[in-house]
C-alpha cells in the first residue's frame, strides 16, 4: 500500500488542521465517528445556550414582551443576513423561515410570475425529490405548466434550457452523489435563454463557499439543519436577488410578509423587501438554536473549510479504494474534489446492511435507496483520524462479512 | 357597589376552583398578572423538560438516529391526535405542522378542489388579517376566484352563502372582540348551500371545548402557541374530516406528504391519510416544547375549563364596569358568556397608552389597533384574584391619569 498515508501521517494532518479547534465548539458522543452531518448536523453548547435563554428567560419570564425585547420578530431577517454571508448574499436578500419545500414553492411561483409568457420548469430527475414534488404542486396551480427533467427529457440540464423555459430549479450539490454544479456557468446559460434560476443549496450551505451575488443567481433555497448545524428541522432559508424584490410575488402571502403586519389591514400589501417572502409566525425556539449554531460560523474561514473538505473526502476515497477495493464498492461521487460537495458515496449491492453494521459499530453515515452508502464530512468537527477509523471499521465489516447478520437486513421506517 | 364581589368573595372563588392546581404546572413570574395567554401562552416545566431531552440527549447524543428512536418523524401526526381530542377530532384527521397561514392556504385549496364548479370564498372583513391575505394568495393561483366579505358585501356571513360559494373561511372566536360563532349551525348553513367550511380555531383551541366531528366541520386550522401554551411560534395544526381525506389535495405537496417519503420516488403520490397535509421537515425542538405543553391537557376537564373561563370573564366585565365605568371604556365583547371566547375587550380612545401603563404595572394584556384593550383569561393559570388585581390597577391608572405620561405614547414596532 505504498502512497497510502499511515496513521502517523494522518495524525500529522490533524495536527496541521487549522479548523481542528472548531471541534471543541460541538457536542459529539465519545467514540462516535459521525459522518452524517449532511443529514443532521451536530449540536453545540452555543445552540443549547440560546435555546435555554429563549425558553427559560424570554418565554418563561418575559413572555409576550420578548417579541420586541428579545428581537423575536426580527430573527428571520437577521439570521437571513448572517447566513447570507456564507452563501455570498449581501444583506437584505435572505430570510430564514418555513421549510425548504415551502421556499421552493415560493421561489418557483415568484420566478414564473416574472416570466408570465413562459410555462416550462426545468429540473433534474435526480433532484432531491421534494423539489420535484413542489414543482408539481406549483404546476397544479398554474395551468399549462410543463415540467422538463434532466435524465428523462435529455441527458443534461443545459440541453433543456431554451426560450420556453421560465425557470430552472437545480441542486447545487446532488444529495446522493455529491456532484457539484458550476453555479456561475449554469446561471449564465439560463439567463442567456431568458430564464431564471433557483438554486437548491441544501447540501451546499456550510459545506463549501458559494457566491450567489457574484454568480448573478436569481433565487436560492436551502436548509439549515445539515452543515449549518441548526438543529433537527430548523427553519430553512430563501434568497431573492435584490433586482427581483420589487416585482417578485409569491402566493403564500401571510401577515409576516405584509408591509405593515401590525396595522391589521384588510388587504394584503407586500413588504418592499425580502420580508415579502415570509408568511406566518416562525418557531422561535428552533430559530434560536439555529442562532447559536450560526454564531459559530462567524469564526470560520470558508476557504480553509473548503480545503479541509476536499482533503477529508480525497483521503476517504483513497483509503476505501486501497483497503476495501476487493469487496464490490463503486465510487458514485466525482473523483475530482473540485467537482464534489463535502460528501462521498459508494454503491454496493448490500449497502443497506453494510450501513446498519457500520452504525452499530459507531460509524454513522446513511443509506440512500436503492444501493448507496453515503458519508458526509463536516469540516468543522470531522478529523482525519475519524476518516481513518471509519475505513478501518468498514474494511473489517466487509472482510469478515459481519454485515450478513440477519438483524442488519430489517429495514426501519425512516432511513 | 352592592352585588359586586369583594376580595373575600373572590378568594372564596379561588378556593373553590377545581382547576386551581393546574397553575402549578406553569412558570409565571412572581407578581405578574398575565392576561395575554391568548397571544402567547405561558411556559411550563413540562415543556422545558421535553425541550432539554430533545436538544441534549436526542439531538446532542443520538443525532440522526433520533428520527426513528425518538419518534421525531411521527410527532406531527401523534401531536395532531393528542390535540384533536381538545377540538373534538377523532384520530387520523389532525396534523401539527407549518403555520396557521400556510394551513389556511392548504385548506382553501383543498376545499376549492372539492368544489371545482364554484369560485367564491366567503370570509370576514373582521377576520384575523392573515386569513384574508392567504385567501388572496389562493385567489392569485386560481383564476376567477372571488372573495366575498362579511362586513363589506353583507352585514352577516350567513347572507353571503349561496350556491356559488365553494368555501366559507371563518374564525370561531373573533381575535379582537372574542365573539363566538355557532359551529354546528354555520357549518349546516354552508352545507345546505353545497359549500364547505374551514374553521379557524386560533382563539378556540385550549380556550373552550368544540366538537369538529360532531359539528360536521370540513376543515379546521389553528395555532398552538396561545391557549395551548406550545411556545413562541410553535407549529400550527390542520384538521381535515375523514370523509374528505381521499379526495382532498393541496399544492404544498412536499415529501412529508408523500405516500412513501423514503422511497425517494420521482413523482408525487399523496399519502392516503392526513399526512398528505404535511409538506416538509418540521422544527423538532419547537414541536417537543409543544409536546410537553399538550401533555398537561391530558389532565384537564374541558367542561370545567369552559365554566371557569366564563366565570373569569364575567367577573372581569362586572368589576371593570363597576369600578372604571366613569372613564370612557366600552365593552367590545359579547356580554353573554356563552357567546364569548376566553377573552374580553374594551374600547377606549387612549387604549394604546393605557395598555402600556398596565404593562408597566405588571398587568399584561395587549392592544389591538385602533382602540382596543384586549385581555385574555387562560383558565389553567389565571385565578379570580388576578382578575381583581388587574381591575384595581386599571382603575388606578384611569383615575390618576397615569397613562397620560409621555413615555406611554411611543409605539414600538411590534405591539
TrEMBL record, chains A, B:
InterPro entries per UniProt: Kynureninase, PyrdxlP-dep_Trfase, PyrdxlP-dep_Trfase_major, PyrdxlP-dep_Trfase_small
Segments traversing the membrane: none
Top EC group: hydrolase
Gene Ontology CC: one annotated term: cytoplasm
GO molecular function: kynureninase activity; pyridoxal phosphate binding
Family according to the record: Belongs to the kynureninase family.
Species whose genome carries this gene: Aminobacter aganoensis
Cofactor: pyridoxal 5'-phosphate
Chemical reaction(s) catalysed: 3-hydroxy-L-kynurenine + H2O = 3-hydroxyanthranilate + L-alanine + H(+); L-kynurenine + H2O = anthranilate + L-alanine + H(+)
UniProt keyword annotation of Transferase present: no
Enzyme Commission (EC) number: 3.7.1.3
Record keywords, A-Z: Hydrolase, Pyridine nucleotide biosynthesis, Pyridoxal phosphate
Protein name per the record: Kynureninase
Subunit structure: Homodimer.
Positions bound to pyridoxal 5'-phosphate: 100-101, 128-131, 200, 203, 225, 255, 281
